[in-house]
Amino acid sequence: MQTDPTAKLQGKPGAAPTSVARRKFLNSIAAAAGTGCLLTLGAVMAGRPAAANPAQALRPPGALAEEDFLAACIRCGLCVRDCPYDTLKLAPFGDTVANGTPFFTARQVACEMCDDIPCVKACPTGALTPKLNDIHEAKMGLAVLSDHETCLNFLGLRCDVCYRVCPVIDQAITLENVHNQRSDRHAMLLPTVHSDHCTGCGKCEKACVLPEPAIKVMPISLARGKLPEHYRKGWEEKAKHGGSLIGDQVEMPVRGMEGKAYGDSRVDGPAAGLNSGWKP
Amino acid sequence: METMRPGAEAVRVKGWFGAHRWLILRRISQLTVLALFLSGPWFGVWIAKGNLVSSLTLGVLPLTDPYLFVQSLAAGFMPAATALIGAAIVVAFYALFGGRLYCAWVCPVNAVTDAAAWLRRRLGLKSGRVPDANTRYWVLAGSLLAAAATSSLVWEAVNPVTIVQRSLIFGLGGSLAVVIAIFAYDLLVASRGWCGHLCPMGAFYGLLGQKSLLRITADQRGACDDCMDCFTVCPEPQVIRPALKKAGQDSPLILDRDCTNCGRCIDVCGRNVFHFTHRFDQRSDS
Q1: pTM, to two decimals
Q2: Which of B63, B166, B168, B197 has the highest number of chain A CBs within 10 A, making it the mutation to test binding with A?
Q3: Which residues contact B276 (CB under 8 A, 6 or more apart)?
Q4: pLDDT by residue (tens digit) across A96-122?
Q5: Which residues of chain A are modeled with pLDDT < 70?
């Protein structure tokens, strides 16, 4: 039988075996707890950078908001397997995307927006929410015409590729007809994204003819701005209330502008509005 | 050097195959499970889709790792019905047949740690700092707490088991480093360090199969000649003593939840002391 020398020093030889056992037990519990906590802390630290996805990594359709998605996705890859176009990939260990989670890179392979959304059907947990049953409601990201300096349409050319490949053409991307001030005799047809229709499929980014796309699909949190809560849009309030809330403005005569609609400051030409009525 | 080769007597008595029967069956089982997942991506024959975390077999059978399911719950998300059913099937199976059956017969990391343990024996390495065997339960609890605190499956950022499984099945890079790390840890730092002391998945399956039916019994313990071969090869040697040496129990059954039901003790024993049985079988020769 083992005896504990310190117990003898304390003059309690009878208590020795239990105190040794107890100390061993407490030691082992402390060591186990310490190692366990360290390992868990390491996991937390290792998991932290993955909480913010890189901008190019888009989640599959129906994916919950990133912070909910990271709680819900068990990283089984069933969505990847059921994607008929091999669009989705699982993030490997050491990637900037949380490892094992599905994502796609629009510039490489865009989402084909299948009508039956097989990736969502394959998800066993609902990390890709089954509430998404119309692919046109998907919000994988938001296309942003991020570089006006290299977009060929902004240079006055007719490229239009992003507009033409868009599965939600004329709703998610429209061409806005704007006067070309450089030549002063042409129009510029500016690709313009509308966030309420854009699904973030990435086809525009994939198809952009430039070596580096001028239009990019970004996670919505990154792409969108936010108006202050208290802002009201006058024209919307006017439509909602059937008239201006502040009543008609007092019209003051402007010298040289007699006979013009109030507010039309153009020196000559009819007050027919800026839009010539041209359609692409 | 005979002392470094456990099972030498068993090989003499039962022949090489007789002395490696359960090991061979286990490797076949591990490879079969992996093959079911790989036949799809490799040959277009889809049997099991997904991976060991969650899968769909033949389009009908959903299976979900209950530990991942619980992590998701801890992170504040209630997974949908498919995952729930899948987890329930897995829980029922392992609760009945032995939780750590998963560790020995399914998990691909087992081959890595077994290889490290084998090399450790061959090289006669005795040194190292082995963490307490209970550490795995702290890691298990810690992983769930961390999931709750951060609302995400943070353990999955580092979990070598799922990283290796995914890498094998999805052909992802980055797994080799993880495999080498586990192998090196088990070989150079801690004997049976990963599976036997740290892995929270093993801990979870251990808790799950606490009352499982399938057990190993030392029913012929009277024949034991104290050669220590079973202790040498056992990945959780502390589980053997109570059954073999009647330490704190009279039953010949190995009842410890850490037993992985790998059957190596059966293989390696030249005296046929051990056998597979069920938990109500109390037969014993002494």
Answers
A1: 0.81
A2: B166
A3: B214, B215, B216, B217, B261, B263, B266
A4: 888 889 999 999 999 999 999 999 999
A5: 1-17, 48-52, 263, 265-280
